């Protein structure tokens, strides 16, 4: 996840982005998803580039979590279900 793309975002969204990246790096898929969902909930505060980065991070996290879930990672499976049920990231730029 590119930290530069969120350099001009409001401080709370920068913190959520950083926490999402840290969680993703530790394979804490649910933690990463929860932080990304917080950003999606404030998407009106994002620039078009930040919105693109958010959607890209969401797709990458979803793919990584899905692969881990297929390998038997129960926590990844929980994250995949939460991501699916959130309604966010259905298509780039939708939310």
- Oligomer category: single chain
Radius of gyration, taken over Cα atoms and rounded to an integer in Å = 12 Å
Could you give the count of β-strands? 0
The profile of the biggest β sheet is:
none
Which outline best applies?
Answer: globular
Order of helices and strands: HHHH
Helix/strand-derived class? mainly alpha
User: Helical percent range?
Assistant: 55-70%
Give unreliable regions as ranges. none
Strand residues, percent: under 5%
The separation of the N and C termini measures 18 Å
Annotation field: number of helices? 4
Mean pLDDT: 91
Features:
globular; 4 helices; about 65% helix; about 100 residues; mainly alpha
Write structural notes for this entry.
Helices cover 66% and strands 0% of the residues. Helix 2 packs antiparallel against helix 3, helix 2 packs parallel to helix 4 and helix 3 crosses helix 4. The model has no long low-confidence stretch (mean pLDDT 91). It has four helices and no strands. It is globular, with a radius of gyration of 12 Å. With 95 residues, the protein is an all-alpha fold.
